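Trying the structure run again after the queue cleared.
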Amino acid sequence: MTIRKMEQGDIAVCADILCSVYNNELWQCRWTKKAAIEYLNDFFEMKKFVGYVLVDEKEIIAGIFAHEKVWWNNSEIFVEEMFVKPERQHMGYGLMLIRQIEMYVKEKGFAGITLSTNKYAPARVFYQKNGFQDCSHVLFMAKEMR
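Done. Tokens:
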């Protein structure tokens, strides 16, 4: 098992994994591969992109898409997406990716890691088990336009 920096050529495989993770009853998404590639490319092309893939032999089984976020007092990493192939979940691979991001944060001397997730999905429990906490001072807001 190896973790390496993400490359442009990894995006299509990561898009397949994203579709397999989110197109189900739990998440109720309907990603197409084309939309997933475009979505992940948006992150990859960010000026301060940070991304890694987890490779088992020659197969990518997980990915994390993040970026550096500058604040007035200290920068942080914001995790945009993280996913592990469904058949490989609950084996510690997500934790390996989080640890990689933690090492990056420590090397850069950043304040920490932020992310958002669905509070009704199992991902929340995963993040809580790994030291993340709900931030009552932060409110995620949205406005639907129809």
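The chain has a mean pLDDT of 94. Worth checking whether this holds up in the mutant runs.
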